[in-house]
Design brief:
Elements lengths: L1 E5 L2 E5 L2 E7 L5 H10 L3 E4 L2 E7 L2 E5 L7 E4 L3 E4 L5 E9 L11 E5 L2 E8 L6 H12 L3
Parallel strand pairs: 3-9, 9-11
Antiparallel strand pairs: 1-5, 2-3, 2-4, 5-6, 6-9, 7-8, 10-11
Helix pairs in contact: 1-2
């Protein structure tokens, strides 16, 4: 079973995928780009294909935009892509709780994946996303 999710970004860091969700203009592409600057690899921008492989949900580039990431006010950048099992959902939410106790959960293809809501408008966002992956992401 597989599906393509629109309006999400996804990067791989240390072999684990971070699926980035949020409303229009919330900064999904900007976070993906900032994480790429910290060593992540692009899986998909403005869409990602998810497939169940055994017990894992694996993220792969969507066929229509594979290798492209939007840089707002600049244009589209072509980059290499990766594939990885989804370890965490990073949801960009201006109402994110300041000090949550633990994390939430998202359902992807019938599998529960940790979800962390992050306030999107901060220069520390890529650091927070990377910390969320390390603290709450699936191995």
């Amino acid at each position: 079973m597989s599906t393509t999710l629109p309006n999400v970004s996804c990067v791989a860091m240390r072999g684990r995928a971070m699926l980035i969700t949020g409303g229009p203009g919330s900064g999904k592409s900007s976070l993906a780009l900032a994480l790429m600057d910290r060593g992540a690899e692009l899986i998909g921008d403005d869409g990602v294909t998810l497939a169940q492989v055994g017990e894992l949900v694996v993220a792969t580039p969507p066929p229509n935009t594979e290798g492209l990431i939007e840089i707002r006010n600049v244009g589209l950048l072509e980059v290499p892509t990766a594939r990885a099992p989804v370890a965490i959902v990073i949801n960009l939410d201006p109402d994110a709780e300041r000090l949550p106790l633990g994390h939430g959960a998202a359902m992807l293809l019938g599998k529960e994946v940790p979800q962390v809501d992050l306030y999107p408008d901060t220069p520390a966002l890529p650091l927070r996303a990377e910390a969320a992956l390390e603290m709450h992401g699936l191995d």
